[in-house]
Structure formats: structure tokens, C-alpha cells
């Protein structure tokens, strides 16, 4: 029988999502070697890096960390947080450290070694690297500009080296700035001698908490067990969840540009030979993943992210009469027409705008309730959910606008929208469930504020007008003019919210690899050690990360993300389209929506968008491949993109899935954004008609 080497629990998808106390306590019924959580991301936009603010409510972050510390004090191993404070900049990190001091004080944590790892980089060093040609693009944009970089807050995404160094230095608690989320989990495993291929793949599955389960959720815990036979098994802690080969394989695609290759500071995770297996009805595992030591720019390169302020932002949400919709210029986002995607709503498709509005005696109370309702709504898992990356699309970062009403009360509003037919069919129940969750977990929030969900569609259209400018007077003038242009002579309804001063607008200025090894080795990711006694932390020392080569040499598999598993042209495109049209006329074609149990879109970084389609059965998967509908030029035509913008379309036999990756039409959270997370761009694919299929039992 295989021997257990290591057992780790991922608390949740990101600190602040929340997770059941019962799940974490259930994990502690067995051996636990580490308690780990990713604490942030760049997905929510550049605002959080540029300002140093947190995305989640402080109360929610503190509650999650409190429970992690309770668990951490019961084990010998470490508690690790990365990308602290959301964006992982210096101010974000300090915000998280203050929360930690409070928790340590309240729980009476004494005599604990703490390591703090800074990820911020002086812009002057980045400018030097730019001039020396030591910044390498990671795809399209953002365009490098010296003036913009000089104004930017810049972080590097650390790999395993700083984390392993801190662990070797005796740290019980690690608070890291911007981090590769997978490295948070892989570092301690590799330090314990576990194969890097297995460690990185386990880390990728764990970094979103229980999202890799069926049903999945980032608001729950997940355990991984590593054995001496080279396998890892994933164990859900909620009895209502299970891990299957399908769910683990499908999650291995999540947020990545390629289904079988993932690129990290130290090398490449290659999953073409990975086996996914079931241990029993509720647990599943992996084996034979490889981590490859690669040539330049690996193993020593670091991805940099930079953000700077664009200016103040003013927003209006204009309620329109349906008859006036034709007057609104085509480029203005209108919920019910083009609020979720730039392309207008096609025939037989419905777009719903959802505006969450709150009212309270204080701005804090209005903001808290709006934020809670929003976070639950976007990630609420419901039966039959296909768009598992997020239920709604946000056009703004931050997504919430706070304001004062004419009667002196305070309000907050979050605009969002969706075209997902499965979500729409379940919307009434989802809304009730979300309200119930807030009522159960945050009753004070409902006691201190009121709310309403405002629905917008073609019969109740709401236009979104937003203006950005650094000069306040010019901002007001421009916004007035842009509102007038959007209305086209129509009158906005009484429910409209006009001239709202939203949070400042920020932009991404940097998303490049730094190739300067001197800066990486000698300057980046300094480690500071503290002795923690409740709120009192005494500085005890400093360290530099120790870098070492890891991974296989001489790997013979394909490491080209432009060719591995690429869907080839099965027959001339014209013949394929004609055949599909004939099948549709004969009634033998099916909607893609009916053939797959997952159809999701999601940002893969700030400059790419990826789609995952996981089919019900082998028959449906193979029919989709044979249809030629997913040959890259056909996908480009379906999505209305230039062919060059399709990075690749890939087949994934391990979970009967198709992955599509495209260059994002705009950089995430740009001024014209409609979907910051890229989580609601799949509607066009859902409506595709695919050739004849013989129904079979699901293999899920």
C-alpha cells in the first residue's frame, strides 16, 4: 500500500471568499502538513495594485484568516498566504499584516516566527531593464511607455524560491506579496522532496479551493494527499461535493492559455502524459505530470505587473424607454443590447442587466451590503451551472460605486450583466439563495441597509456612460456632453443614477517578463523575519531568496504551445459549414449548450481570454471535433474576430474538452471594459449548432 508523504489543505479560492468552519475542522481530523490560501489576484483589475486597496471586505478577510490561524496552531507545519491584500503590492501587504496582528492578538498567538516577503519593485529598475532590452512581452500589450512606468506601482510574481527560503528559515507564518498562486502550494511540497511535476500540478488544482470539485466552489476547502507511489489524491471536505477524474482534469484547464502546458518562473508544467484516476466515488487523483527545466527565458525570469492612475471617473446609469433605444449610439453599452459584449444581442438570445442598489445611513453600510450581495452572486454555485468561472460580467473596476442620495442617505450600486441562458433560467432561485446567504452569515449588513435588484433588458434598457479625466472640471464637462450624446435627445427615466463620482480609473502599464538576473537574484523579494507575540512583532532578521534549478532535463515531449494538441482542419471550411447547415436543416444538429456540462470563459492574464468546453460524453466530444467547427479560422468567424487573434484551439482527451484561447480584444479593465473577469463571453459559443449526435450515458 502506498505511503502518505504529505497532506495539505487549501482554505478557499481567495482569502475573503469565505469557507465553512466545518470543512477546515474536518481536514484536521487527519494529518495536515500545511494550511495555505491564495490571498489575491490581478483578475479584478489594476485599481487594487495602483491604490494598495483590498478587493474583499475586511471583515470577510479577517474571518477567513482567523480560521486559518486556529487550524495552524493545531499543526506543526506552516500557514502560507500569497498575493496578500489582493494585488500583493507593498501597501496591500501592509494591510494584510495589520489584519494578521489583530488576529494574533485576539487568539493569543505567541512566540511564532513570521516571514514577510516584499514583491514590489522600484520603477527606476524597470526603466533600466526596458532600456537594456530585458523586458519580454507575454502577448499583445500593454505598450511600454517610460512616462507611464515611472508613475506605476510595479510588482513581480514570485515563484517558489522566496517561499522555500522563508520555510527553511523557520517561518511558521508566511505573508507574501504578489505570488504565483501555484508556487504557494508547490514550494513546501518540493522542499519535502516531492516531484516538481506532481507538486506544481497539485498546486494548480488547489489554488481555487474547492472549485475543482463537483459541484465546485471557491468558498470551500480542498485537501490533497501525496503518496510515495507518485500519485496525488484530492479529497473534498463537504460531503455534498466529490472530486472526479473529470472535475480535476477540467480544472487543470482553468485560467490557462493552453490545456497541457503551464509556464512558471522555474520552468514548464507539462500535462500531456498526466493520468487522471478515481480512487473511489468521491476522491480522484493525478500522476505522471512533468515539470521541465527549460532554456531561456526560464528558469530565472519573473513576470512583472504595473498599474497607474488614469484619472477620476464619472458614471451615469440611464434608464431608457424601449422606443428610445434606437437613438442611443451603437458604441454606448446598454444592458439589453450590448452591455455584456460589444456585439449586439443576436436573435434568440437574451441579455439581462443586474444592478444591485443599496441604501443606508452611512456609506460604509451601503457599500458593505452591496459588496456582499455582489460577491455571492458572481460565484454562487447552482445545479446545472455551466459558466463556472463566474455568473455575471462587471464593466467597472472596482465594480462598486458609492454615492450620496438627494435625501441625505447613502447608496451604492454595482452594475453587471449576463447572457448565460442557464443562469437566466435559474435567476429567481439564485437571487433568493444569495439573499439568504447574506441574511444567515452577515445579518448586521441587512439590518443596517436596504437593497434592491434592478433588472434591465430590451424592454427596460439601461445605458452605461463613463468618463475618465485627470482634471476634475474637464471631467464634469466631458461627462455631461457624453451623457447628452448617449441619450440622443431622449429623456432619462426617474430611476436613473446620474453624475456619480466612481473610484479613480487605473490601467495596466506592464505585463512583461523581467530577464535581468542580477535584479531578480540580488534585489527582488527580500524576506524579513519577525518574532510575533500577539500584536507585537519584533524584527529578527533578513534573508535573500536562494535559487536552485529544478525540473527535468532532456524531456522529449512537445513544449510548443502553438502546436501541442492543436485542432487541425478536418475538411475544407466551406464543406464543413455546408455540412453543418444541412444537419441543422434536417434537425440532426445540436446546440453546443446541450452537449456540454461546462462552457466557460475566463481571463488568462490581462491580455488573453480562454474558453473551456467540457462535453457530456465521448460521442459528443468526437462529434464536435469532427464537425470542424473548432478549427481556428471557423472559431474566429463565429466570434467575429480576425483569424490572427485566435491563439489556438485545442483538444483535451483527458476530460473530453475543447479549449479556445484568443487575444483579448482589449486589455482587462480598460476604460471600455464590459467584463473585467472575462467570465461572461461564452454566449456566442453556447448558441453554436454542432453536427448529429447519438445520445449516450454521461461519463462524468
Automatic annotation (TrEMBL):
Where does the DUF4387 domain start and stop, copy by copy? 592-687
Residue span(s) of domain Acyclic terpene utilisation N-terminal: 89-277
Q: What name does the UniProt record give this protein?
A: DUF4387 domain-containing protein
Q: According to the lineage, what is the superkingdom?
A: Bacteria
Amino acid at each position: 500500500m502506498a505511503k502518505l508523504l504529505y497532506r495539505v489543505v487549501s482554505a478557499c479560492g481567495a482569502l475573503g471568499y469565505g469557507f465553512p468552519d466545518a470543512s477546515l475542522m474536518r481536514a484536521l481530523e487527519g494529518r495536515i502538513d500545511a494550511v495555505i490560501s491564495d490571498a489575491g489576484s490581478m483578475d479584478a483589475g489594476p485599481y487594487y495594485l495602483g491604490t494598495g486597496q483590498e478587493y474583499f471586505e475586511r471583515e470577510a478577510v479577517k474571518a477567513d484568516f482567523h480560521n486559518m490561524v486556529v487550524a495552524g496552531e493545531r499543526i506543526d507545519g506552516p500557514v502560507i498566504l500569497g498575493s496578500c491584500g489582493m494585488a500583493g503590492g507593498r501597501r496591500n501587504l501592509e494591510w494584510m499584516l495589520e489584519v494578521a496582528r489583530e488576529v494574533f492578538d485576539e487568539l493569543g498567538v505567541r512566540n511564532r516566527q513570521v516571514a514577510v516577503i516584499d514583491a514590489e519593485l522600484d520603477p527606476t529598475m524597470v526603466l533600466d531593464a526596458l532600456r537594456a532590452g530585458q523586458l519580454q512581452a507575454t502577448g499583445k500589450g500593454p505598450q511600454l511607455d517610460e512616462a507611464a512606468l515611472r508613475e506605476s506601482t510595479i510588482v513581480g510574481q514570485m515563484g517558489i524560491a522566496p517561499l522555500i527560503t522563508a520555510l527553511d528559515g523557520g517561518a511558521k507564518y508566511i505573508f507574501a506579496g504578489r505570488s504565483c498562486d501555484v508556487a504557494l502550494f508547490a514550494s513546501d511540497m518540493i522542499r519535502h522532496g516531492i516531484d516538481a511535476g506532481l507538486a506544481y500540478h497539485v498546486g494548480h488544482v488547489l489554488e481555487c479551493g474547492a472549485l475543482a470539485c463537483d459541484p465546485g466552489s471557491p468558498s470551500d476547502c480542498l485537501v490533497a494527499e501525496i503518496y510515495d507511489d507518485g500519485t496525488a489524491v484530492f479529497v473534498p471536505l463537504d460531503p455534498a461535493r466529490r472530486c472526479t477524474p473529470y472535475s480535476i482534469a477540467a480544472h487543470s484547464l482553468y485560467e490557462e492559455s493552453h490545456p497541457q502546458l503551464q509556464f512558471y518562473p522555474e520552468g514548464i508544467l507539462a500535462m500531456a502524459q498526466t493520468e487522471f484516476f478515481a480512487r473511489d466515488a468521491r476522491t480522484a487523483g493525478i500522476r505522471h505530470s512533468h515539470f521541465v527545466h527549460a532554456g531561456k527565458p526560464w528558469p530565472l525570469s519573473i513576470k512583472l505587473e504595473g498599474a497607474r492612475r488614469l484619472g477620476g471617473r464619472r458614471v451615469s446609469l440611464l434608464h431608457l424607454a424601449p422606443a428610445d433605444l434606437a437613438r442611443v449610439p451603437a458604441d454606448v453599452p446598454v444592458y439589453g443590447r450590448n452591455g455584456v459584449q460589444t456585439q449586439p444581442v443576436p436573435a434568440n438570445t437574451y441579455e439581462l442587466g443586474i444592478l444591485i442598489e443599496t441604501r443606508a445611513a452611512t456609506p460604509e453600510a451601503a457599500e458593505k451590503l452591496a459588496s456582499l450581495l455582489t460577491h455571492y452572486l458572481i460565484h454562487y454555485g447552482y445545479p446545472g451551472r455551466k459558466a463556472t468561472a463566474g455568473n455575471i460580467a462587471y464593466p467597472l473596476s472596482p465594480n462598486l460605486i458609492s454615492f450620496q442620495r438627494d435625501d441625505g442617505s447613502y447608496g451604492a450600486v454595482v452594475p453587471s450583466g449576463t447572457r448565460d441562458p442557464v443562469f437566466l433560467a435559474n435567476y429567481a432561485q439564485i437571487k433568493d439563495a444569495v439573499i439568504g446567504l447574506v441574511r444567515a452569515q452577515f445579518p448586521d449588513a441587512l439590518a443596517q441597509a436596504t437593497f434592491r435588484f434592478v433588472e434591465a433588458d430590451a424592454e427596460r434598457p439601461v445605458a452605461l456612460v463613463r468618463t475618465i479625466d485627470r482634471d476634475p472640471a474637464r471631467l464634469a464637462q466631458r461627462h455631461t456632453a457624453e451623457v447628452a450624446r448617449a441619450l440622443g435627445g431622449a429623456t432619462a427615466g426617474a430611476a436613473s443614477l446620474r453624475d456619480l463620482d466612481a473610484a479613480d480609473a487605473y490601467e495596466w502599464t506592464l505585463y512583461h517578463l523581467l530577464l535581468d538576473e542580477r535584479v531578480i537574484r540580488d534585489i527582488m523579494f527580500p524576506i524579513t523575519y519577525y518574532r510575533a507575540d500577539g500584536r507585537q512583532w519584533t524584527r529578527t532578521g533578513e534573508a535573500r531568496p536562494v535559487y536552485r534549478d529544478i525540473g527535468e532535463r532532456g524531456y522529449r515531449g512537445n513544449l510548443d504551445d502553438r502546436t501541442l494538441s492543436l485542432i487541425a482542419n478536418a475538411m475544407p471550411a466551406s464543406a464543413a459549414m455546408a455540412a453543418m447547415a444541412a444537419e441543422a436543416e434536417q434537425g440532426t444538429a445540436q446546440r453546443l449548450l446541450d452537449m456540454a456540462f461546462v462552457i466557460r470563459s475566463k481571463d488568462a492574464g490581462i491580455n488573453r481570454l480562454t474558453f473551456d468546453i467540457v462535453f457530456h460524453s465521448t460521442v459528443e466530444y468526437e462529434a464536435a471535433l469532427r464537425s470542424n467547427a473548432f478549427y481556428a479560422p471557423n472559431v474566429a468567424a463565429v466570434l467575429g474576430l480576425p483569424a490572427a487573434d485566435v491563439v489556438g484551439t485545442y483538444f483535451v482527451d483527458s476530460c473530453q474538452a475543447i479549449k479556445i484561447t484568443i487575444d483579448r480584444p482589449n486589455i482587462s479593465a480598460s476604460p471600455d471594459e464590459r467584463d473585467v473577469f472575462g467570465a461572461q463571453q461564452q454566449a456566442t459559443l453556447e448558441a453554436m449548432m454542432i453536427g448529429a449526435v447519438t445520445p449516450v450515458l454521461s461519463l462524468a
